[in-house]
Specification:
single chain; mainly alpha; 5 helices; about 100 residues
């Protein structure tokens, strides 16, 4: 993760695990639904410290990393399952389509 000042990595990671778990329990969920969009808002808020310091290249790299989660998840656990990542991307696409 980028060097984000005043961020407790352990607490931040725990928040990702919590959000990922809550989303996983809510699935399946229509990505365009109000509940899905609320999860997307929460996801973006949690991501905000990173996006505040990340370059576009860093953001693209993170997206690519999680798009390939199946290649590395057995060796390095993710704070959220692959189906949650797929859902969040779909929720973002649904928001973009509605705009």
């Amino acid at each position: 993760m980028a060097d984000v000042p005043n961020l407790d990595p352990g607490a931040y990671n725990a928040r990702w695990h919590d959000l990922g778990s809550r989303i996983a329990k809510a699935l399946p969920l229509d990505p365009a639904s109000p509940a899905a969009q609320a999860y997307l808002d929460e996801w973006q808020a949690l991501l905000a410290p990173f996006t505040a310091v990340a370059t576009p290249e860093m953001m693209a790299g993170a997206t690519s990393l999680y798009d390939r989660m199946g290649e590395w998840q057995a060796d390095q656990p993710s704070p959220f399952p692959a189906n949650v990542w797929t859902f969040i991307k779909a929720a973002g696409e649904a928001r973009g389509a509605a705009a």
